[in-house]
Amino acid sequence: MFKFSTSHFRMECRTVPHIASACVRGRAFPIHEVVEPSSQASSRHHPVAGYRRAHDAIWGLAAWCRHWLFLRLRPAHPASGRMVPDSAEALSLTLMANRLADSSSDHLLQYAHHPVDWWPWGPEALAHAVETDRPILLSIGYASCHWCHVMGSESFENPEVAEFINAHFVPIKVDREQHPVLDQVFMTATQLMNEGAGGWPLTAFLTPEGRPFFTGTYFPPEPQPGRPSFMQVLRALADTWKNNRPTLTTGADVVAEHLAALSAAPLTDDAPEVHEAVETIAADFDLIHAGFGTAPKFPSATTLDALLVRGDARSLELAQRSLEAMARGGICDQIGGGFHRYAVDPGWVVPHFEKMLDDNALLLGTYIRGWRRTADHDEGLRALLERTAYGIAGFLERELRDENGAFMAGLDADSCDIRGAVFEGIHYLWSPELIIDALGEEDGDWATRVFHVTAGGTFGEGLSTLQLRGRPDVDKLAEISGKLLAERGRRFPPAKDRLIVTSWNALAISSLVTGALIWNEPHWLDLARDAARYLVDTHLVDGELRHSSRAGQVDDSPATAEDHGTLADALATLAGATGEATWLRHAEVLCDQAVELFGADDGGFFDAAAGELFVRPRSLTDNVTPSGTSALVRALRRVGLLAERPDLLARADEAATTTWATVAENPRFAGSALEDLMIADEARRGLKPAMVVVASDDPFDELARASWRLAPAGSVILTAPASAQGFGSWLEGREKRAVYVCRGERCFDPVTDYTELKTPLWHRT
């Protein structure tokens, strides 16, 4: 039996600068050393105490020894020459291509010329493992994952390592963005076996049937104090598989049992107290820097949305202070718009530089709603929130929109210097000299003060991320930002992950529609329509939804509950904004299919259809994006109200109860479920979700835009001419241009003056 295990957080970078010869326009940039982050990093993946209970049982039954690994590694040396091209195909080397060469995933294409004999996930790979009686080495990552690149360069490109893997294992490479449910299962297993810690790259060893018996994340090429090298892990596991296999198979059985147990939602008959949930969240609030927890610090869009829905003074303070701090910090791309994934420090100064669609799609909507809940007299905060939202939308269109109108998955954290050597974050960093070179002395001095670019560097070694200080002149800020963005455009850009993910695009559609109507931006509505059209035309195959595509070619990855829920909600939102009923018909079909495919006996939803894996997973938390259950609850409510489907509304009520225990136990990781509970709490106090019908043939009628600005959370808005078909009875007898508000069994008198809308929208019955 081998004598080591791993406990490892996702590789979070904290900069300890060293001089290196990398440069942008000849200026020195640092490479950085990795140090162990706070255990708070694991909380993103470890929100439920059930993990702890299962973990204890697994460790006891498997009798595995725990050893902490300390992150004291250097990143890949520049001499490695690892390039970051604009497309994964440009990685073609002199090596013969492996089975990944025909993949529709940029992440897998990055490994297509490695000496490792990789298989993509599928029945052929599993059958080969059974036939050869070899364990599976499962490596899960994604195209913009910095530490996936590091491990790939250090280990999977190493001929000696590859030879050993090929001789003793069946290596399978998985893109977590392409197979999110697969990633969820094995990430949960990793957390169970590693005291709640996990991250990417995820490295798991499985029986030939696909059950995990050993898991970790990044493994270094050389042993470090308290932690083994990757070759040590490989040799120990290969030897144990050959000479003491029952040790591994017994452990795999135990893990599988506990994974199955975690799919059962803890049920309660009593809805949690909303006030108590807010107080629990507030206890984690960073009084100095805002946001929640310590480093690394994540934006937590779903939690902020819940606080904005609550809307009391305390909730608004927590949300608005966090939104402002994030918008001013280095985590926000101050000149290019959009947010990096998270900050490695409490003050939001230094980000982990990858920029992902899911984060930005959600944050766009959150900043719009934050602006909506900010008082008119707070002009400075409103201007900041508006600038941030417009920056996100601009980033999505400029850098993530593909030629088909959909949005790509993200941008790499890494990029090249002028010699082609790769460094994390090099694309986004500045020195005072670089700014003055780009802007001239006068404007350069102004910009260094406004963006807090210091001689010593906020990032280290004379280099700074851009932060926004004070409340500078809006027009000058826009002018200077544009010039710096143009200058940055001369640098080598980060690589793009061109995978088109259904759920992430759906989140972007919903946010763009919301912003379009609130801020009178018809172009945003066009962007949303284009993305929706692509998903319907490409991702619906013979009436069944697929999870992802690339370059217009859909792959065979099955759609998840989250895909169905977010897309149904997005299409229904689009239908309501445009009066185009075809979007609503698609949304209804998706809801009906989701109930059939993912429904659980307790009223909730599994994340995947039956029979896809050895365990059927169900996420009980809302993390970066809403869980499958939360996404479907929202969709069922919107579609049910808009399509007059009481069966869908009843199904939403039933599913919502399965989230209550998680809200009570850890509301910070149940933001979407908490938001739904808050809306239900308001309904119990007389403010039932409203159906708002704007009888007009203009989607941007001032009555419609005022309704989008004023309507309380949970409302469904339909703007359409009275002659429109496909919306049940909502338009019957409503030929007069007016706003018709119905809540429950009561319909208010029609309103023709937008200044009088507040009464019917907010009147408690």
Q: What is the CATH topology classification name of the largest domain?
A: Glycosyltransferase
Distance between the termini: 68 Å
Helical content stands at: 40-55%
- How many separate helices? 26
Give the amount of beta strand, in percent: 5-15%
Describe the overall structure.
The chain is of the alpha+beta class and 765 residues long. The protein folds into four domains: 246 residues, Glutaredoxin (3-Layer(aba) Sandwich); 327 residues, Glycosyltransferase, CATH 1.50.10; 71 residues, no CATH class; 73 residues. The chain is 44% helix and 11% strand. The protein is built from 26 helices and 23 strands. A five-stranded mixed beta sheet has the order 3-5-4-6-7, sandwiched between helices. A four-stranded mixed beta sheet has the order 21-20-22-23, sandwiched between helices. The longest helix has 22 residues.
Fold blueprint:
Blueprint: E1 17-24, E2 27-32, H1 50-62, H2 106-109, E3 119-120, H3 123-132, E4 136-141, H4 146-156, H5 159-168, E5 170-175, H6 180-193, E6 202-206, E7 212-216, H7 230-243, H8 245-262, H9 274-283, H10 301-310, H11 313-328, E8 342-343, E9 351-352, E10 355-356, H12 357-372, H13 379-400, E11 410-411, E12 414-416, E13 422-424, H14 432-439, H15 441-450, H16 474-488, E14 496-497, E15 499-501, H17 502-519, H18 522-539, E16 540-541, E17 544-545, E18 548-550, E19 553-554, H19 561-578, H20 581-598, H21 628-642, H22 646-656, H23 660-665, H24 671-684, E20 690-695, H25 702-710, E21 716-720, E22 739-743, E23 746-747, H26 758-762
Parallel strand pairs: 3-5, 4-5, 20-21
Antiparallel strand pairs: 1-2, 4-6, 6-7, 8-9, 10-11, 11-14, 12-13, 15-18, 16-17, 18-19, 20-22, 22-23
Helix pairs in contact: 1-6, 1-8, 5-7, 7-8, 10-11, 10-12, 10-24, 12-13, 12-17, 14-15, 17-18, 17-19, 17-25, 18-19, 19-20, 19-21, 20-21, 21-22
